Structures are given as structure tokens and as C-alpha cells.
Amino acid sequence: MLFFSRKPKINTKVPKVEFSVGEITILVRRLATARRLSLRVKSVDSAILTAPPRVSLREIKAFTESQKEWIEAAAARVGAAANPFAPDARIDVAGSPLLLVHRPEGRGVKRVDDRLEVGGGIEHFGRRVTDYLKKLARETLSERTRVYAQLAGVTVKQVSVRDTRSRWGSCSAKGAISYSWRLILAPPAVLDYVAAHEVAHRLEMNHSPRFWAVVERLYPDYGPPQRWLKTQGSSLHRYG
Fold first, then answer.
1. Tens-place pLDDT, residues 30-82
2. Which positions fall inside the YgjP-like metallopeptidase domain (predicted)?
3. Residue 199 and residue 144: Cα distance in Å, rounded?
4. In the chain, what is the straight-line distance between the N-terminal and C-terminal CA atoms, in Å?
5. CA distance 214 to 127
6. C-alpha torsion 194→196→197→201, nearest 10
7. Are 218 and 196 in contact (CB under 8 A)?
8. Which residue in 52, 90, 93, 175 has its CB near the most CB atoms, within 10 A?
9. What residue spans in the chain does CATH classification 3.30.2010.10 cover?
10. Cβ contact 68:47 at 8 Å
11. Which positions ≥6 away from 99 have C-beta within 8 Å?
12. What is the pLDDT of residue 7?
């Protein structure tokens, strides 16, 4: 007698799986008809990865990590100019609302009360606002870093600002700290928390319980700004 066995059905109704690449949440969707891994960026902070049923989560994460630069570039394109720096736009700078004003006859950028007045041709407007914010971010973060470094009893070799997407700050083993200039668009408590966080790495180059104890000593109420970054931080990349 011959027995015929059916191939076991693949259960594609698996629980929702999510993980993060930097600040971008990756939702894994398994399809029985999928033949390969594919990625689609939905927004500035989310993407969907479609995978065949039998591909392991480890393989999925390895593939996604290999595509990190592409994912971040695609997310940047999606979010580009969502809130452009343009005349009559309103932005929050270090917790204060500012109206962007074009003054063609003027020169440079200056803050007047609740306005940011930008001189020169309109074609340079956005770049000049960005340059102003980067300079302000560097000055503000340098000052707050000095405050927390003194409190921690450590030295910081250098403070710089960049337009990073995967992290808000970083600290090298040699004591150089780099921040995202976009922190100047966040509430001041958020900027302070990140400064304290990075200075804490001068004592603990890890995220161990000892590290978080240092953060708490430097900035006791770090919970709310930390949650703000997780839930609203991606919105800062939509400016400019």
C-alpha cells in the first residue's frame, strides 16, 4: 500500500515582528508568495520588509543592517522638505517659537524678538536658516556639554555637530563628542538630556547599569526627554 503525505502548510499568520535600524522602525511582513527579501520605506521613521516564510529573523536583521545606508537615505527623501525653511514658516528653536521672515535688502541672519530675519536672495533662504541653526546648536551644545563635563569631573576634547539620522549623539574613546544639530529644534530638556548622556560615556563607554546611574546623577529626570526622543524625535528630520 502506498501512502502519500501532504507537504506541511506554512503558517504565515505569525505575530507582528518589529525591530529598529537607528531611528527607523522595520515591520516584518511574511508572504507565502515572496521569493526574496524586499524593503519599502513608508515614512521618515518606518519601513516594511517583506520576507518569504522560511527566512529566519537573524537573516532578516542581517540583510536590513546591510541596507542601513539605503534605508536612511530613502527615509530622508521621504521626509525632505516636509517642513521647509521658507518665509512665513514657524519653527521652535530651543523651545521658543520663531517666525521666519525674508528681508531681501538685509544681510545675514539675525534674531529680532520672535522673528528670525534672513537677508539676501530667496534662493539662499533655506541654506542660511540651516547655517544659523547649526551654529546655534554648536554653541548651545558646547556650553551644555561643558556644564555636564564639570559636574561629572571629566574632560571633553571636542564638540561638533552633524546631520546624523541614526543617532542623536556619539562620544569617542578619545573624548570627542558629536551631536545632531537638529537637537536645537527640540525642547531644551531633550537637548540637555542628550548632552548629559554623551558626557556620561566619558565615564562608561557602554549602556550598563553603571552608565545609567551616571546619567541619572547628571540629569536626574531623564525619563521624559528620553521618551520624547523615542516618540517624537523623528519629526525633527522633517525640517529643512
1. 999 999 999 988 877 788 999 999 999 999 999 999 998 888 888 777 665 56
2. 35-231
3. 10
4. 74
5. 38
6. 140
7. yes
8. 93
9. 90-238
10. no
11. 88, 89, 90, 114, 115, 116
12. 43
